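Design a sequence for this backbone.
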């Protein structure tokens, strides 16, 4: 619902004025109530079919939601947070096997059928091999990209000439190189 909300309001700005008083929830925008069946149908379709594309839609919606609501206040906070999370990720990916006798990160990503990873088939055949990208690999760089975009927009009035574009291109090159 949250991901589609601003786009619907772009095309139908009058919907922002209509509210509905929902018991136990309080006042809710009518546009959110209208989008709720679509969101519920997406989750139900994924739950019933397990289709990878629906899984990716749910994962990316979670990523957009988290990146939008958690804002890094400064570059110092971003550096400390991302540095510590890098160490955390390294432990679970490379060293957890020594402690738990299995790679915890890989087993959760491959054995659990939950929307916690974006995946796509390498060759689109019926029994193809999937490649995967964890939500942390999207959200954590997304925090920094969102911070850089806000920083560039504040300093220069646009995000095209500053750090944001360089960081975004670097992130995309790194993703392509890791595949």
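Sequence:
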């Amino acid at each position: 619902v949250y991901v589609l909300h601003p786009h619907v309001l772009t095309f139908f700005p009058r919907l922002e004025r209509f509210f509905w008083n929902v018991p136990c929830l309080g006042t809710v925008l009518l546009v959110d109530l209208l989008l709720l069946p679509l969101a519920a149908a997406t989750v139900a379709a994924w739950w019933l079919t397990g289709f990878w594309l629906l899984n990716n839609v749910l994962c990316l919606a979670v990523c957009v939601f988290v990146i939008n609501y958690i804002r890094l206040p400064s570059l110092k906070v971003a550096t400390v947070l991302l540095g510590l999370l890098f160490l955390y990720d390294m432990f679970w990916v490379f060293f957890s096997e020594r402690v738990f006798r299995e790679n915890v990160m890989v087993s959760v990503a491959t054995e659990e059928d939950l929307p916690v990873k974006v995946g796509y088939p390498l060759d689109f055949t019926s029994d193809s091999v999937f490649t995967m990208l964890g939500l942390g690999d999207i959200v954590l760089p997304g925090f920094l990209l969102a911070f850089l975009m806000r920083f560039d927009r504040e300093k220069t009035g646009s995000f095209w000439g500053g750090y944001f574009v360089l960081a975004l291109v670097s992130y995309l090159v790194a993703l392509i190189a890791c595949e």
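The longest strand covers residues 117-121.
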